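Review form for a predicted model. The reviewer records the input and the model, then writes brief findings.
Reviewer: anonymous (R2)
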Amino acid sequence: MAKYLASMLGLSAGNREHHILTFTLFHFRFSPPTDDEIMKLLETSDLSSLSDEDDPVDEPPTPPERIGVLEVEGCNVDVTPEAPASASSSHCRPLRWRQSKMCNRQPSDDNFEEQTDGELRNPSQFFFEYFDKNFWKNFAGQTNLYHCQKNSNSLDTNTNEILSLVGIEILMGTLKVPQARLYWNMQLDIPLVSSTMTRDRYYKLRNNLHFVNNLEDHDVNDKLWKVRPLIDAFRNKCISLPRSQHLSLDEQMIPFTGRCKMRTYVPSKPNPLGLKYFVLASSDGLVLDFAIYTGKGTIPDSDQKEHGLGAGILKLLARTLPNDYNHVIYSDRFFTSSKSVQLLLDRNIFQTGAVMANRIKEVASKFKRDQELQRGQWDEYVREDQEICALKWKDNKSVTLLSPCIGSEPEGSCKRWCNTEKAKVSVKQPAIIKSYNRNMGGIDLCGRYMEYYRSNIRTKKWTVRVFNHFTDVAIINSWIMYKRCCQKEGIPKEKWMSHINFRIHLSHDLVKSSKIVDSLELSKEISPSVTRKYVSSSDEDEQHQPTKRRRIVPKPTRESKCDRVDHLPEYIESSFASRCRLPGCKSRSRIMCKKCKVYLCVLKNNCFAKFHKHEKCS
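Model under review:
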C-alpha cells in the first residue's frame, strides 16, 4: 500500500524507496487513514508508472540522513521518534522523583598523610611559600613610593624592616595586649618588640603600607586593585595545594568597621560587619581557594542571571577541581539547589548540602510532614534517572539534604539527649547526615583558629586589615600543612608545635630577619634553625634564646620603694658601672637595690638612703 501511496503523491521511481520508508515512520506516528480515504486516493492516482522492476531486489534500501522527515509538496513534517528524557533537555518533561534507595558512590575518606606539599620544614619556610621574596621587595618599594608621593621624601624602609613589622603584628595578635602602645610601655617592656622598632617608627610604617602605585592606571572594574598583588600571591599558592576529596564551601568575614564600599553586614556571623568572602576548604581547615564579595561583578553576569549568586560562586570556586567523580563539595542551603547539583554533576563533581524546600518543589511536596515523622525517621526520594537523592530527616527539627552520591545507606546512629528519659539515647541517622556533619565544618574550624590569635590592631584602612587577615590565614594554612608533614613522618603528637608556638617562632624569625636582603631563597635564610628539631617546643625554646643585653628597668612605684621591706644593697660584678637612678645624681655605681632593681650610690652621695625615704618619694 505504501507503493501505491508514493505513486499517488507523484513521487519519482528513483526516490520512491526513501519516501516509502519515511511514510512508514509517518504511518506509525500518526493514525492510519480510513478505507474510504484509501479508495479515493487510488481512484485519482496514476498507476501506469508502477512495475516490479522499480523495487530493489538484492539489498534493502539504506535509510537516508533525514529519515525522520516526510516531504509532501514542500512541507516538512518531523516524524523522528522521541528521544529519551534527560535532565539537560529543555523540551522534555520534568524527571519524576520516586521513593527509593540511593546507590552509594561517594569517594573514600581523606588521607591527609598523602596530601602534603613536600617534606617537613620550619615555620618561616611554610610561610614564605605564600609570600615570596619578590612580594616583600615590591611591598617595601611601594610603601616608600606612597610616602614620597604624600610627603616628598622617602620613608627609607626596606625588606628587612617590613618583615620585622609583620613579625611584630603576628606577636601582637598572639599576646593580645589591649593597646598597641603598651608593647613599648616601660613597666611591661616586651623586648622582642621594643628592641626591634621604636613605637613612632612602627606607627609611621603601618600608616604608609601600600601594595600598588596609586598614580598608575588600573582596572576600573576591579574594586580590589589596591590589594591585588596580595590577593594574587596568596591565591596562587592556595590553588597549588593538593585537593582533598571532601571539601566545604561557606562564607567568612574580614572584620572591619571603617569606611569601605565593599563592607557588608551579616548578622549571623561573630563579626557581622566587614568584608565578606567565600572560601573553599578541606575538612581539616586548609584554605584551597576563595573569592572576595565586591557586589556586582563578583561573578560573571551570565552566571548571575542563569544560576544566581550561590550557584555562581560554587561554579567559580570549583574550577580548580579535577573532573574525575572523586570530589565532593559540602555546602549550606545558600549554595544548594537541584540546579547547582546538576551543574556540578555535568562537570563530574559531586555536591552534598542542605537545601530549602522552595528550591526542590518537584519533590518537596512528596515528603511526609514533620508531624508524621518521629525522631530518627526519614523520607528518601531518588530521581528516576538515579542521579540525585533528596532526603528529609527528623531530629529535634527536620532537615532536608540533596546529594548525587550518597543517600540513607549505610544506616548509622548518633547519641541525642532525651528529655523524658533524662539520658542520651541512640537515634537512627542516615549516611548522608553523618557525612555532611563530618566534612562540612572545615571553614568553621579555620575561623575558630583565626579567632584564637587574630591580628586585630585598630586601623582606619581596609587595606591594612585585609593584609593582616590574609597573613593570619597563611599562618593557619602553614600550621595545618606542618601537622600533615609531622603525621606523614610518624612524629608523635606531643612533639608537634601548637598553634601559638608556631606563631611565636614565626614572629621571632621575621623580627630577626637581618640576613635575607641578598638571599636568593628567602625562606632558607630567614631562620637559623632549619632542622627537624622544630618538632619539639622545648628544643625550640633553647635555640631561640634572645641576645643578652642590658635593658632599662622602670622605676618602682611609690608604695613599693617606700615600704622599708627587703631594700638591701647588692654589689653587681660588671665591666661598666651604671647610672645612679636618684633624680639629680650624675654618678655611676655598681650597687643595686635587690628589691627595686635600680642602681644607687651608697658611699659617695648616700643616694640609697635618700631614694627610699618617705619625704623624697614621689
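Findings: The chain has a mean pLDDT of 81.
Further findings: The two ends are 126 Å apart (CA to CA).
Recommendation: see findings above.
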